[in-house]
Amino acid sequence: MQTKTNNLNQILSQIEYLSYDEKIEVMDRIIRSFKKQNSSAREGLTRLKGLGKGLWNNINVDEYIDSQRKTWD
Question: Is residue 56 part of a domain?
Fold first, then answer.
């Protein structure tokens, strides 16, 4: 953990020496990196859309919920 903190502190101290435009460029690159990672995660989740929906074709939702609620008592 200490090494990560030291690395982060080193990066931040180096950023202090950058010009305004260079700092903006660093921020832009970080934001693009986050968007890319988030996009990949979202794409993974969208592949699951509709998975298993056929399992519910012959099931009455209200009856199923009522049967599940009866098990709570």
Answer: no
